[in-house]
Amino acid sequence: MKFKLILNTLFLVSFLTGYGQDSNFKKFKKLSGPEKCWVIWHPFVAKKALKISELARITTEQVKTEKQLNGVGNGDQADAFRHTFWMAKLTQEIGWRRAKKLGIAHEKGNYKDYKKHQLEDGALPDKASSDMDLYNNNVGIEIGKKSVEFELKNIVVEIILQGKCKIIKTDTHGNFLDCEGNTIPKENLKGKWENDKCLVESF
Questions:
Q1: Tens digit of each residue's pLDDT (9 = 90 or more) over 10-64
Q2: Which residue of 35, 75, 87, 167 could cross-link 137, Cys pair, CB 3.0 to 4.6 Å?
Q3: DSSP class of residue 196?
Q4: Which residues contact 13 (CB under 8 A, 6 or more apart)?
């Protein structure tokens, strides 16, 4: 175990001080503590995982521009797409176990961001968002195990439209609703990790 950690650290140092040093190091610094730990333990696939993470964001923007799904990326279909596509692609490229661990590390990082009052994609993370992401991550892993690469984007879109992922319940104006359909006052959401947001199928 100790030898593996030393080997991983040496490879990570090589990665950070090699081609694209400034870019790689800056991206590494922006990661949360749990994500940095994942990189240290998985240095041989870290660069590939980074590229896939960037691809997931780019592809999500394409889906939003093409209006294949609703939302801007905060608890909606577009948000569900980003996580589901990300995990599906990671599963295909680095294996489902590594992908799952990275997804969990990302959510642990979001909880740390919440504690520090740091925003993720323009919003303060909360438990409902984290539960949604973890659920959709698992859906993405299963898609990645079964699907071919060139069909991935459309498969994920179709899965979301079939309601097989989770989103956060809102009204037509974007206000968050509880599971009974009542509008949640904004003061009941501000700065709270646990709240009355409700996960629903991604129709």
A1: 445 445 544 445 566 777 888 889 999 999 899 889 989 999 999 999 999 999 9
A2: 87
A3: S
A4: none
- Ranges assigned E (strand) in 22-102: none
Count the Cβ atoms, other than its own, within 10 Å of residue 129.
Answer: 23
> Are the beta carbons of 153 and 59 closer than 8 angstroms?
yes
Q: How far from the centroid of its chain's Cα atoms is residue 196's Cα?
A: 22
Bridge partners (DSSP) listed for residue 166: 201
Cα(16)–Cα(47) distance, rounded to whole angstroms? 10
Torsion, Cα 66 159 120 196, to 10 degrees, reads 120
Contact 202, 76 (CB under 8 A): no
User: What is the bridge-based pairing of β-strands 199-201 and 166-168?
Assistant: antiparallel
Instruction: Reduce the DSSP state of residue 1 to 3 states and report it.
Output: coil
pTM over 0.70: yes
DSSP state letter for 194: S
Contact assessment for residue 154 and residue 82, using Cβ atoms and an 8 Å cutoff: no
Residues in the chain: 203
123 pairs with which residues across the strands? 120
Question: What is residue 156's predicted lDDT score, i.e. its pLDDT?
Answer: 97
